Amino acid sequence: MSKMARSGFVMISLGALVALTLFNAAQLHNLESIVIDNQKQLTELQKGVRVVGGSMGGGGSTASLSEGLNSWTPSAQEAEALKDPTNLLVPRPYDFANAAHIEYGGTLKRIIGSDPQGLNPYIANGADNAEYNTYFNDTLAWPNFEDQTQYFPMLATKITTPDEGLTYRVELRKGVLWHLPAVDWSDGRHDWLKSDRPDGRHELTADDYMFVFDMFANAQVSGRISNLRPYMDKLKEVRQIDRYTFEIEYTERVYTNLGIVVGLHPSPRWLYMYDEDGNEFDKATWGLKLNEHWYNQKGIGTGPYRFVRWEPGVVIEMEANAEYWGARPPFDTVQMKLVQDQQSWPRKLKAGEADITRLQPEQYKTEIKDNTTGVYLGNEHIKYKLQDTLGYFYLGWNADNPKFSDKMVRRALTMALNREKIVSNVFHGLGEVTSGPFAMQDDCYDSTIKPWPFDLKQARTLLEGAGWTDTDGDGIRDKVIDGQKVDFEFTFLIYGNSNEWVTLADVYREDLLSIGVKMVPSAVEWSTMLKRMADREFEVYSGAWMLSMPVDLMQIWHSSEADKTESSNRVGFRNPDADRIAEQLRTSFDPAERKDLCHAFHRLVHEEQPYTFIYQRRRPVLYWDHMNEPEFEVQNPHRNIRRYSFNQDPVRP
Prior knowledge:
Elements: E1 19-21, H1 39-44, H2 76-81, E2 107-112, H3 127-136, E3 141-143, E4 151-153, E5 156-160, E6 167-172, H4 207-217, H5 224-228, E7 235-242, E8 245-250, H6 257-262, H7 269-272, H8 286-291, E9 305-311, E10 315-320, E11 333-338, H9 345-350, E12 356-358, H10 361-369, E13 382-388, E14 391-397, H11 407-415, H12 419-426, E15 431-433, H13 456-465, E16 478-481, E17 484-487, E18 489-495, H14 499-514, E19 518-524, H15 526-534, E20 540-547, H16 554-557, H17 576-587, H18 591-608, E21 611-624
Parallel strand pairs: 2-11, 18-19, 18-20
Antiparallel strand pairs: 1-20, 3-4, 5-6, 6-8, 7-8, 9-10, 10-11, 12-21, 13-21, 14-20, 14-21, 15-21, 16-17
Helix pairs in contact: 11-13, 17-18
């Protein structure tokens, strides 16, 4: 195969990709992309007892379903690969202490708040899309969040680097099978999708990764992929060595290079390079065709669950992959039922229409905070758990709009938002006011930097100093911009299905009006909000980032991203000092130096206020006790099916 330079990507949930955009119940504009469990959640797949019959299949594992996950062992290929001292992957520890509590089979019922944009993880944006992809697909390796230097084998059994971080050689697990596409096979129209195998399935090969790099190198391919391209800007070349082996070469050693490699997940060229009748796309326009591909509304992968159907407005359904290369997934089927009215979610849980659900702040106040009985929703079999999240909510100011181009104006608008009161009274204490762009659990967060206080008097002074005065006595400040008198009036874009954010907007509107600024809330549904953010058709929007470790600042904050289509730097933040810090952080390997760089960036962003940082959230959930207690992943709680299982002999509603 000829050599060719290509762009690439990093999986959201590994350290290389900093964030996924999340808005309340529905968001994640990648990054949300995401999303990998910590070590406890990893071993959940290796716990097991009673199961239904069947064979494991794939990957060389010989355990049967009737033996349970206790019996699942690594393939001979993996065992041999792990003997190699140059292998960067390490053996997975197995913990079967809770095996007797797990029952296999049945249907896990969950609730979602909106339809996703699509199910192609490289095209559609949104946390929901990233979440579903973790069920359908796998990555090359799995991180140990207790030791960020360790990764466990997944689709790769061996990763080596002959030059200490410039080149990575990846050897894939043999015998891993793609799901059969979810199409109507009855009329023969889609028979071209079948392989030469008797079961028609395709084996995972290196070409399924080469296609990923081809997508990133093709500027025609848009969507979520546009936000991920910054993470491979140091990529020099990708080479396919043989059917199961490829190499990734960089021009520079970057702190996140290994995280980028292990976070890769595959995409099938044999599906996405063809129209529905099996005609190959023209090489000059295939990127454009991929953006609107006929299969983008369906899921496919090598993962533990196979996509079955998506009925918009009703349900997304998936089933256990009987030929999964790894441990058997705990449920036979999973149903994601769409219920837009979040206020009804606890009622759905109580009625047995869901096994687990998160609570909105007002529901938390009613059902948990003000509840003195210890019995939730009137049923002793419903349990409660609270979990911190790794990320923050914010207001994003469009710096390309002259109203918000002055940092003193942005600071004034921050000081007009009563964040302490809002977190306490609107979000009912489910979080803590934050001052900067890092998670409070991370060393990057500088706790000595305090949030700007709620101070309407100081906000007025700052606006006056920036030239915003009320020259016509109508109560609204104005200023001459480009020869025209402009009133200080703007629209606030919020997610319409969240009562709490509607309330926040109402509180904020009144305080802004008291200092001579008119704000008009605009509540829209999720798909509209995603599009308007991507197209930068906003003055200010409400959003959130769910963060990963280690930190990388390029995607969200670097000036080079400010003018790109569908960039994560949608607020147009441009600052040479911030760029310098972001670039230096990428090439720094010293923990103390990285911490100092993060703190310097925190101080800079605190002064600039491109965002009004609001709070870091805690998330409450209720669940039936016929499920094991949820073990929340570090980065994005309540996102990955792999950590859930039913108890034996459960009491069900």
